[in-house]
Design a protein that fits this description.
The protein is mostly helical. The protein is built from 5 helices and no strands. It starts with a helix and ends in a 9-residue tail after the last helix.
Length: 98
């Protein structure tokens, strides 16, 4: 690689990294919003993923939600398939809300 191309390549790589970090933060924020709306904890999400063979901890879920850790494709698929019942979605409501 010539000396002229190297700085351009470094700049390009930095831009891609910045974009990836923004996307990961947005995805993490969305996961947190959905989890909170469902009324479940990070521990519960981690346990559901573990039951399906995913080696993940509550701490990893927390890091994903703030964009400090990326999701692997198998984790995305398993997150999509977590069964959240109607009861979980309405767990925060009282009888007056119904």
């Amino acid at each position: 690689m010539s000396r002229k191309i190297a700085p351009i390549w470094v700049h390009f790589c930095k831009e891609v990294t910045d974009i990836n970090q923004k996307v990961e933060k947005r995805i993490g924020h969305n996961i947190r919003q959905l989890r909170e709306k469902a009324g479940v904890t990070q521990e519960w999400v981690a346990a559901q993923l573990q039951l399906n063979g995913c080696d993940i901890t509550r701490s990893a879920i927390a890091k994903i939600e703030v964009g400090q850790r990326h999701l692997y494709p198998d984790e995305i698929i398993l997150l999509r398939d977590i069964p959240v019942s109607y009861t979980h979605l309405r767990a925060h409501e009282t009888s007056q809300d119904l």
